[in-house]
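Our working data are protein records whose layout never changes between entries. The record below serves as our worked example for the rest of this section:
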Amino acid sequence: MNFKQNTRFEILTPTGFRDFAGIRKLQKDVIYTVTFSNGKFLKCSHTHKLISYGVGIEANQLTIGVEIDSINTSPVYIESISIDNNMIDLYDILEVDNGNLFIVDDIVSHNCDFVSSGHTVVDGPLILEYEAKCEDPIERRGIDGNYWIWEYPDYDRDYIVVADVARGDAADYSAFHIFDVQDIRQVGEYKGKIPPNEFGNMLVTVATEWNNALLAIENANIGWAAIQPALDRGYQNLHYTYKDDGYTDASVQLKKGYDMKDKSQMVPGVSTTARTRPLMISALDMYMREKTPIIRSKRLIQELLVFIWLNGKAQSQQGYNDDLVMAFCITLWLRDTALKLRQQGIDLNRRALSSFKKTSPVIYTGKNNTSDIGWNWDTGFGDESLTWLIK
């Protein structure tokens, strides 16, 4: 998603030419083509608003025959609406100095820019700063090419794979991030529509490749279908959460023993609840303000640009999705826990190694052992010495 700041041009509005902040380029995979009675047509996203008698109506709510506000002397009606699923570039006009109303081919349109109006959860200019640093992946894997990789596993590093699961056939997408735990550096990402069971198998394969990474799968509703393959395949580094206090206090999880054999008080995966979601959003705000994460994905930036405060809740703008954003929030929330778990594992290994007693090595001298102790064998006809075997 690219943003071009405007300092020279004005745009036509119902009250004349007005200033506007700039233009943002987006890619959308669901496109509405609306044809009007004046012979014009408009390609837009399903949430783009057209104006009818002063009221904004999103494209997905429009019906044939509706009269649309225009600057024509004759009324303009909607003649047809078609929907395409092809990827296309769209352009947003941002912060028009007239209530965000502007004219496109005589038709009155509406737009609202959340970046410059301060509604985004992450500060808008900061998102744009991150956007400028995005990189194209060095490899795109999978049948759909939606598994993006920016670097290959370094076997001296620790990684975390965090997934948000969708049904695979609806508006939401299944998504996961791969981050280097120490540097909070994005090394891989997936966003696509895939059945949950297949997604679960994919996650196990991916996590195994990335040094048996800590695998954290969001377990709400359909998420269990993706967790089950990890359980069936016995993936050893699957993230578990305590049913009660461990949800909100990572230190509790560590004190009780993350890898205890009795997991009766634990559930596999990560639960996004009314208690944990604010903590995840807080982690996003804190880490982004400190500019700590290294983000390479344009897809994640696109979602952050429409991840807004709405009625006091952090969520995606209507008509968009936040699958990558929520997986990112969980990653940041779990990151400190993952580091502590790693250090705890190192400490446990050190204690185990230090508990071994030093013993004198057994050295083979090449001399014959002629002792009969332990070398007698009852053949049924009396004891027979087997020392001849070692002579």
